[in-house]
User: Fold these one by one.
Assistant:
Number 1:
Amino acid sequence: MYRVKAVAEMFDVSVNTIYRAIESGDLDALKLGTGKGTIRIPGEALNIYLEKCAQAAYEAFVTGDESAAEAADDAQGVQVGEVA
């Protein structure tokens, strides 16, 4: 389980980007505790999100909709790989 800040650092994006991904349903997360609680992101959810980002960037690049730089930005600068 990862904290939002740790995930943001791993992906080299802002914490707000991770919260937006969670709110949009692109990234699964768990809310622990009552009230405001705390959010934790399971490792498997990160792997799924990473694959989604990589696939979207690849498809955009292959279809010619974006340049390589834009595609890399869409993948949020993350290299495809497993997260523990």
Note: Helices lie at 4-11, 15-24, 43-62, 68-74.
Number 2:
Amino acid sequence: MRQKNDTSEPPVRSNEDERAYLLKRAKDHQQLSERSQEFASKAIHEKLRQLYVDRAERIEIVVPD
């Protein structure tokens, strides 16, 4: 997470790298959800997992001819 006074630019990734990053984060939240004991924690991690998956699915990866 970026700090309040952080003026640096966020990392720039290729579409393929961004998609892989988002899917990794989705997997991380799935694992956290599975390990959570509290219903609220499970629900939060599942929601975050779904948001990462949805975002990854929206990235277009153009395959050159």
Note: DSSP finds two helices and no strands in the chain.
Number 3:
Amino acid sequence: MTMPGTVRAAQVLLFVMVGLVALRIALAGDPEKAGEITGASFPVIIGFVCALRFGKSKSRTTTIVAASLMIAIAFHAMGQGQPAGLVDLVIGITIVVLLSLRQSAQWFHRARS
């Protein structure tokens, strides 16, 4: 069974998020600010590692939890007046929705040889 489009879309979104985090760190200019960004982006890094392992045991559940943490951190960022929080919020919600669909669940729970 090939990876459904919903799972592939969630995987690509996680890759994009890691790219955005790397860009934010590169543009931070201050090592302390870069450290703050890295710490706040920990769920994105976890999600990225899971996206590399899609199809393996527990990667779907871990990715949904990581995306949920992304959503919580995005709300905090928006509360601090950071516009990037809105992007993180939308992508986090999209990842949770895509991986929660029946088609995605069936692919993750398929029989493996």
Note: The longest helix spans residues 5-28.
Number 4:
Amino acid sequence: MASNTPYLVREQPPKALIYLLLVAGLVAITYAIIAQKLLIAVAIVCLPIVILAVAYGFQNPYFVYLLYATYAFFFTTISRYTLKVKLSVGLDIILVYLSVSLLVVFYLKKTNFRLKDAVNIFTLSYIAWIIFILLQLANPHINEEGITHGIRIMILETFVLYIIASIVSNSPKVLRNGLILIGLFTIIAFLKLMYQRYVGFDSSERYWLYVQEAAKTHILSTGIRYFSYFTDAGNFGTVMGAIATVYTIIGFNTRNRKFAIFYLSIAAMGIIGMLFSGTRGALVVPFAGLALYCLICKSIRTFAITIITGLCIFAFLAFTDIGNGNSFIRRARTAFRPTADASFNVRIQNRKEMALYLKDYPFGIGIANSIPKLWLKQDLTYEEGTLPPDSYFVSIWIQTGIVGLVLNITIYLVTLLGCCYIVMFKVKDRYLRHQLAAFTCTVFGILLSGYTGYAPGMPPTNFIIVAMIAFVMNGAYIDKQITQQKLTINKQ
């Protein structure tokens, strides 16, 4: 009999089918346990949860974006413990999933997302880099690996992430939830750091250190460089420096006292993590970030406090020997006395050789390629090797030449200038302005650290850069929402 109800009736699956699936699942679990195939049993148990999560993600792109952020932070940890490589393909899979999720909600017209948010200085300036990379594919020195990396990472993955981040990062709620989420990731990183410090490295970490020879750069005569769950101490230190900068600025400029305590606690963890990483280049993140913050904060009081604090810390590290008994302070201090550091002098010499070699390659030697060099061994024979790129921007220089390096820096510079303009002139809400200023200044610091380390091109640092810039690009729209919320409250 036909239903006369005016409402839509959702067809339920037959009960027999549900019971059949349930029985099949129980039989499969029983078999897996008897056969001691516990991994299969766990997979079967988790399968319904995975199916529900995937279905939910198609209706909620925010959830998938959170999933992407989580995987960006932790997939290198999974790689270390499973000894599996190339897990970065998971980022591509989630990115495709996120793209499809956005298309679904746009098609169903059940969204507050705006496609026009994807058009900004951030995404438009990157088109110039895409064109340059496409031209690089014609470089006679490029190999098959370079072509794959250029198309997959430099063009598709990065550009799609730029667009999606610009669309999704569109509200005060998303901004607040993002700060809380990264704060939770920081707590996990800090707890892992404390475990490494006071309990020791686990078996997987020892394998990485001593079998894969990471100990050469992490177990030093001056002390241990801790890395928590990150790829290495350099990446860990840079991320912690960024966390310290962002959460310090926001912590002192937050209405809610509970949130202020939370943010400042996360900032303290970031400072400790940065020092324990022993990454001298990470110090540029808070110093450069706070320097730019002084210029765009539009507050004489904040400017004065920040300048005085920064100068005191700089004077303490650069002109005194106080605290040299602490290995972390002693190593941090060498960042301000680089000529006395042997590794710094080796870098300078290597870069001189690179400059000489690249003189004839203004467009670089090809994506994913390295500069060849004969290295003198202890037995006075020579071994074929390469000149190692010691940082993110040096790697760009080698692969794409001086032309590519200048273009890459110009794109970042234009984007940062756009961010500064939005923060200073487009955002009226005081607290939001400080939040977006913190993001802009931290991105500036991270990019400067790219002169001494790889972090800006590595996960999760590269994701952090994209996420923060995306929020700033939507600053005016988020500010408008805050204004409307205030008006609604006042009317009530």
Note: Strands lie at 219-220, 223-224, 371-376, 382-387.
